[in-house]
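Support request, priority: normal
Reporter: lab tech (M.K.)
Component: structure prediction queue

Hi team, I submitted a job for G protein-coupled receptor 85 from Fundulus heteroclitus yesterday, and the status page still shows it as pending. I've pasted the exact input below so you can check whether something in the sequence is tripping the parser. The sequence length should be 121 residues. Please let me know if I need to resubmit or if it's stuck on your end.
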Amino acid sequence: MANYSHAGDHTILQNVSPLATFLKLTSLGFIIGVGVVGNLLISILLVKDKSLHRAPYYFLLDLCASDILRSAICFPFVFTSVKNGSAWTYGTLTCKVIAFLGVLSCFHTAFMCCPAATHLT
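Reply from support: The job had stalled in the queue. We restarted it manually and it finished. Here are the results:
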């Protein structure tokens, strides 16, 4: 979506069937809901249970926080964009910021998982 805004011809993306749009919106809503609620529940468990206050669980808590932020900040913009016929209506700066936050979250997760796998064994 971010690169398509400069192509000029938006009719290709706007001619999507209502069923396909419904399925996309339903799956994105499910991902947002499960991502926020599930990771929030795990975070609460990790904070409240004193026996889980160890290094491996701090990594998990950090991953949960990152996933909550991505689900709560980036995905609603994508949801609205799909709802508007895959048209980005927020401007160029917002597009770049949301894209940056999405990529930052993915790389953060990758960098947290790689060292954690070597230190936990």
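The mean pLDDT is 85. Residues 18-48 form the longest helix (31 residues). Let us know if anything else looks off. Ticket resolved.
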